[in-house]
């Protein structure tokens, strides 16, 4: 319920009013009241907790969503989520878990939205409401430096690729004939790759850049980069068109104001929002 404030007592004012003028004033006041009501209704989107945007995210997926050395949740997607919540005049709470468990919690209605590099696909559109994209990336095949057997996406055929069970990248790898070895995070994928237990890891190019920035000695490289762009959006509970529209409006404003670019520069040194 939206509280529009308590009723104020009306003071008695005696004045002669032209009946015609008074009628026009009443109509004008009705329009003003309607405008105020519309504004009031636009202050809060439909969320599972009134006045709060509950966001599901991994918390283990740097640089998008992770806990820093102080134990504080941070990252590109986390900062975007906070900026969106501020635009919506909502407080924000985070629900963190590995990808598959996080999506299961979201599907169970425990969060309003997912900010976690969710690729916009036709399949996901059937299950969720998806916002306009706030990140644009390219798919990349990550392999060990000593692996020269993979030079293109076609070379994934018959290879072992590490990823979570419901990841869009796992589906891309499978479409080229790769066998998916299921893990619960990108960090685990890279552990298996470095250990030589899998042949590849598919992710977007900016994830690899961040990984090598933090682990420059890691024996990995990009074997190939896809030509198609991957568009990333916010997943919202199916049927909550109101919240999706509000998020789209907030993202458009953040983009126009340069804040999305600023957040991108903070984590990647370039604008990945378009």
Low-confidence stretches: 1-17, 19-43
CATH architecture identity of the largest domain: 3-Layer(aba) Sandwich
Largest sheet features: 7 strands, mixed
Proportion in helices: 25-40%
**What's the number of structural domains?**
2
- Span of the ends, CA to CA: 37 Å
Structural class by SSE content? alpha/beta
Strand content: 15-25%
Order of helices and strands: HEEEEHEHEHEEEHEHEHEHH
Number of strands: 12
CATH C-level class of the largest domain: Alpha Beta
Topology-level CATH name of the largest domain: D-Maltodextrin-Binding Protein, domain 2
CATH superfamily of the largest domain: Periplasmic binding protein-like II
Measured on Cα atoms, how large is the radius of gyration? 24 Å
**Large-scale geometry:** globular
Annotation field: number of helices: 9
Average the pLDDT over all residues and give the rounded result. 86
């Amino acid at each position: 319920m939206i509280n529009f404030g308590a009723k104020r007592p009306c003071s008695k004012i005696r004045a002669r009013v032209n009946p015609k003028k008074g009628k026009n004033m009443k109509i004008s006041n009705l329009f003003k009241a309607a405008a105020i009501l519309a504004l009031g209704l636009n202050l809060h989107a439909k969320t599972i907790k009134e006045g709060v945007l509950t966001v599901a995210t991994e918390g283990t997926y740097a640089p998008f969503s992770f806990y820093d050395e102080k134990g504080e949740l941070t990252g590109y997607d986390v900062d975007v989520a906070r900026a969106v919540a501020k635009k919506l005049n909502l407080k924000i709470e985070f629900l963190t878990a590995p990808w598959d468990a996080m999506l299961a919690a979201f599907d169970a209605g425990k969060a309003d939205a997912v900010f976690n590099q969710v690729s916009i696909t036709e399949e996901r559109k059937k299950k969720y409401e998806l916002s306009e994209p706030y990140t644009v990336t390219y798919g990349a095949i990550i392999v060990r430096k000593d692996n020269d057997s993979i030079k293109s996406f076609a070379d994934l055929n018959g290879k072992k690729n590490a990823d979570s069970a419901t990841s869009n990248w796992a589906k891309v790898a499978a479409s080229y004939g790769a066998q998916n070895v299921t893990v619960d995070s990108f960090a685990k994928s890279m552990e298996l790759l470095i250990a030589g237990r899998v042949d590849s890891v598919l992710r977007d190019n900016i994830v690899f850049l961040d990984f090598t920035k933090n682990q420059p000695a890691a024996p990995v490289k990009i074997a190939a980069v896809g030509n198609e762009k991957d568009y990333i959006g916010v997943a919202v509970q199916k049927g909550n068109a109101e919240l999706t529209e509000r998020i789209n409006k907030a993202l458009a404003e953040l983009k126009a104001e340069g804040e999305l670019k600023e957040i991108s520069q903070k984590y990647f040194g370039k604008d990945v929002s378009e």
